[in-house]
Amino acid sequence: MYFPIGWPKVIKIPEAGLGTVREIKCNRDRILFAILTDDSLAIWFCKPCVPIVFQRRSTKSLEKFGTNVTAEWKPDSSMIVIATSEGHLLFYKLGVPSDHKGLYVQTDSPHANLRRDSAELFIKETIPPLTLTLTEEIMVWDGKITGMACITMSELMLSTSESHVLRYRWDGTQNRDYTLDLRRIPFCINQQVSKAVPIVEENTYIVDIEYSPLVGGFSIVLNDGRAAFLTASSLKFDPNQVQGIWAQGIEDATCTTINHKYRLITFGRANSECVVYYVDESTGGLEISHNCVLSSKDYPGCPGVVNRVLWTPDGCALVASWLRGGIAMWSTFGALLMCSLGWDYGLNVDIQKCNPLRISSMEFATEGYQLWMIRKHAEETSCDREQCDTNGNIEANETSLIQLDFVKSALTINPCMSHQSHLYLQGEDKLYVNSADTLIRMFAERSSKDDVFGESASSLTTTLAEGRQWLVIPVPSTYSATNWPVRYSAIDSESQNIAVAGRTGLAHYSMQARRWKLFGNESQEKDFIVTGGLLWWRDYIAMGCYSIVDNADELRFYPRDSKLDNKFARIVRVAAQILIINILQDQLITFGSDALVCIWHLKQNDSVGDVDVGKLQAIDISALAVHPTCIASITLTSLRTETGRGQARPSESIVLNVSGRLLMVQREARNGEKYGCLMPTVLASCVENVWVPARRRVDKAHLTEALWLFCGAHGMRVWLPLYPRDGDKTHTFMSKRIMLPFHLRIYPLAILFEDAIILGAENDTVLYTSDSNSPFSLPFSVLQRTSQVYLHQILRQLIRRNLGYHAWEIARSCMGLSYFPHSLELLLHEVLEEEATSKEPIPDAQLPSVIEFIMEFPVYLQTVVQCARKTEIALWPYLFSAAGKPKDLFQECMAKGQLDTAASYLIILQNLETSSVSRQYATLLLNTALDQSKWELAKDLVRFLRAIDPNDVGSESPRTSFILPAKLGLTQTPPVAPNAEDISLILGNVQGPRVRSYSTTISPKLTERSTGAQHIDTLAESPQSARKKSVPNAMGNHKHDSKGSPSNTAEEFFIDVILQKHARRLLSARRLTDLGYFAAHLDFHLVTWLAKERDRAARVDDFVKALKQVHEDFTWPYPSPAVLGVAGGSVPQSPTSPNALVDDHLRSLKLDVFNYPTTASRVGDSGYMSFQGLHGLVTPLNALEQSSQIAETELDERSICEAPPKSDKNQKSDRILERKLSENFGANLNLKMTVLASAVDESVMSTVSSVWGG
């Protein structure tokens, strides 16, 4: 809810002098602050932060009464009382001179160059000129004063070291009849116990006391570490009626505070924890609600003793400080929001020994936007801060005043914003907006380019966290200068308009126009105060407000498109002050200080202020809460238990958050238009926030008709509807809905109901300087947006409760989400990790049910393999015992054509099966990938096959050591350089380089290009199979090194056979485009291979058809038809004739292979530079090449003889084209026109299949 932002401001207190700042206390409005030092009292104004009045006590007064210890304000801010160390009370009266207009009045300079050109440079706030007068000096004859608490406008309570609680009036007199003695107050564990025992121990007294009229008593901390709650039958606290209730399980309490709205009693403990209690209404005893504890992830050590605890003004956050330094903030029910122990203070600061943030006192400013703290400098560094003046006196600044700024969620003060799915936070004079559309747009763009399963889980988390930039919208100074701070804010459903309300009036902002709209008449702006919330309804701003001029409470509707003026507003008088408002379509619900819930029907007639407002129902809920202030939120929702009999249409229900208890009150239409209410139903406890979708979608009924609750440390809860199957009988209410709990790693601020995403925010810090003397030594706080997918959490909870059908319905409705496969993967991964790593046997394992559930979706195969590759190998047997054998899953992928998924299963097979099995399946996948033109996949598979150690092929046991590729592996690393020389620099000569047939002498650098997520990344080679060239090369001479193994050469030979076979198939089918992609991706030496195939596969049978195929493949335009009708040399051609143009174009198509520039290529040497000739090879041919060329002449002659006869016209056209091409290409390439004939040695290929088949 609350998040620190910016730099902590260090405020100088010149009037403090050499004294130590003891305490800081704010008045009820939190506008004035009393800064108490040992010998002085200063009153400061909050905004702007300036001193108003200061008074220092004389030396005689210090000797007589002692130094100042603590202070307390009167509720009307007219007096302040100080308790001294010698047990005296000093009463000061604050007055305002009638003849003084205000302090810090700014006047412009008479010089034109020194005048202020902007109104923002003037202080428009009226700072009251206060006077401080000492009126009474009272001596308390009861020991030292240990604590003070104001209970009424006329009285305050004092706790003394003599075990007494005294009651004093503000005029200085004591009310002796109501003095409490701890030794006479009965204490017990609850109010039902008949036996109550007073405190009999000697020297036991109260060290801290706090009062709350809403809880109905005092929370106290005794000097022996015990804690209790003092209550009575009436707030008069008659000594004969006061009873003490022990806080059980706590013996080391140090301080206390009370949350009034949620009726929570908090105690700080010496073990660094804070424990929060609530009063059990049935027994009257104190029951533990939750503990505010730092986990080992937040802080591994023990911070020490808690010395201060403090709630925010709205009760939505708790701040605790430790004696050894550091502060932390939790939400109402224990979710950690911020901890300074994790901040970056630099390398020279050890926060365990010398924490820079040691707080002795703290107070929140108005609306909780600022936290004023008194910081003590660490004892270890106090000597460094001491400086000696010229007289030899030691000057030490032991304390300082710090101001830390906060931003908070609008839900803290305006709970109606839970309908919106837009994340935004409000500050004292600015708004931080982060629209959810950015996140969804990022997902859509990312999913259109890449596949989710091609990336790791961390990459998808990064995608979810994108869009962290906040749009900061400052409130114009024209409005904020006199209406600071922002109290209420509201954003519309389209995130296009924002409205804010400060101390008076309101203003709204258009995101499209980027302009603010303010009241033209400033007096109208000052005439009303927004008191009950702010929201957008269609084109209107609705609010509950108080009119200062008419002294009446009202409902107001201001049109968005008109000027902000009362003449365009629709004003409706109400009976009592409105505290909370909310909206559901055209029905407005309000809650007032008279404990009445009113439901209004709204009808818009136009957009200039004509709105019909009619009251439908008024409900008295005074019996549900002790005070209207305890109603944290009220929501009108269409969620119901079941439809009543005779009801024409379902009525809306009311959901109330009463001090953390969530109640549901159902309405029913009776006798026509009259409504009645059923008995309230308790849905949950410890509820901080409630989210209800604003609209219902039929295709996602489960998610858009659910009630979302956040319960702090107890996690997230969702009240989910369970729709019966077709044909099932109707059941009772509880069978139609179920409450599912699950934990979050973020603090939720907004929910995208239809997209199954929770949005939140978190705090981070940046250190700019480590100089302890600099005011910037404290780190700078920044704000980041967080998000989390929750779909898999719901699915798991439903499957655990044997509600798989409902889980399937929810999952089916979310299949369109781009991250749906990732949700299934998270579901499987969490169950696998929990069950496979459990030290105790699991009686009812959930993994088989989850596997069976995921099998219902087409992404089952991808989900299993992605979960496996991100999990430890030790957990694989447990996973595949339920998911099926990897062999079967691989074959299923092949049958479905999911080649990339099948490639991922090769890693599984490589480690769970023998190397021969993995090689067999890799060969099968390679052939299929080549047939389907999956070049990137084929490239990775070739490298995978070469990386298999031939020594493991004959082994019957699976490999124990393996190398995972970058994308198929558990971690992503840069691809390994394929050159053996580079690897030898690191690992030494692990193996001599293998020289394959006709290898190149240049090893150009390989530049990987980025591919889609559907393709697996480059597989890293093992050191045992390091090669000088990692690409297939079938045209050179295989020279075996003395250290090389014959099996290595044979394996590489068989890989080359597969590649050459596929190259011949492509060339025979005239698929030159695919042949080019094949050569480029697999680094196939095409020129050298074509030279050897010139009399076999490269021979052209039908030259015209082949040429047409080239034109078609490469979209090469045909020459002019006139060229085909002209005989060669029969007609003289002019230089500008079409035939001459064709000749010029053909002559321009030349390939200079001898003067080819030596530039780095992406695919390495393609063969042009390494090829030495066209009529013969300088190196011996391998067995395959020799066997393939045996019948070259015979096949050539047979092909020519068997060629079908052609017509004269066709022969004439072919001769013309042949002559033209031979003149242009033959002169440069010295090529001979022959007829194509495929000659592939099938016997060799059958041998390859028999060798690799087993």
Characterization of this structure:
Strands 1, 2, 28, 29, 32, 33, 34 and 35 form an 8-stranded antiparallel β-sheet that branches. With 1254 residues, the chain is of the alpha+beta class. The chain is built from 27 helices and 61 strands. β24 and β25 (317-322) form a beta hairpin.
Ranges where pLDDT stays below 50 over 5 or more residues in a row are 380-397, 445-466, 643-648, 959-1047, 1126-1136, 1156-1207, 1220-1254
Largest sheet: 8 strands, antiparallel
Rg estimate, integer Å: 41 Å
Q: Give the CA-CA distance, first to last residue.
A: 64 Å
Structural class: alpha+beta
Number of helices: 27
Beta percentage is: 25-35%
Keywords: Membrane
GO cellular component, one term: Ric1-Rgp1 guanyl-nucleotide exchange factor complex
Organism: Exocentrus adspersus
Domain RIC1 C-terminal alpha solenoid region: 792-952
In short:
The protein has 1254 residues and is of the alpha+beta class.
Any chance you could write out the topology, listing elements then pairs?
Blueprint: E1 2-4, E2 9-11, E3 21-26, E4 32-37, E5 40-45, E6 50-56, H1 59-65, E7 68-73, E8 79-84, E9 88-95, E10 131-139, E11 145-150, E12 155-160, E13 164-169, E14 180-181, E15 187-188, E16 206-212, E17 217-222, E18 227-231, E19 243-246, E20 253-259, E21 264-269, E22 274-279, E23 286-292, E24 306-311, E25 317-322, E26 327-331, E27 336-339, E28 358-364, E29 370-376, H2 382-385, E30 387-388, E31 394-395, E32 399-409, E33 423-426, E34 430-434, H3 437-449, H4 457-464, E35 471-474, H5 477-483, E36 488-491, E37 497-501, E38 507-510, E39 515-517, H6 522-525, E40 528-537, E41 540-547, E42 552-559, E43 570-574, E44 578-584, E45 587-592, E46 596-604, E47 611-620, E48 631-637, E49 653-658, E50 661-670, E51 674-677, E52 681-684, E53 689-691, H7 701-704, E54 707-710, E55 716-721, E56 737-742, E57 748-752, E58 757-766, E59 780-789, H8 791-800, H9 804-813, H10 820-836, H11 847-854, H12 860-869, H13 876-883, H14 886-896, H15 899-912, H16 915-931, H17 935-947, H18 980-987, E60 995-997, E61 1036-1039, H19 1046-1068, ...
Parallel strand pairs: 15-19
Antiparallel strand pairs: 1-32, 2-32, 3-4, 4-5, 5-6, 7-8, 8-9, 9-10, 11-12, 12-13, 13-14, 16-17, 17-18, 18-19, 20-21, 21-22, 22-23, 24-25, 25-26, 26-27, 28-29, 29-32, 30-31, 32-33, 33-34, 34-35, 36-37, 37-38, 38-39, 40-41, 41-42, 42-43, 44-45, 45-46, 46-47, 48-49, 49-50, 50-51, 50-52, 53-54, ...
Helix pairs in contact: 8-9, 8-10, 10-11, 10-12, 12-15, 14-15, 15-16, 16-17, 17-20, 23-26
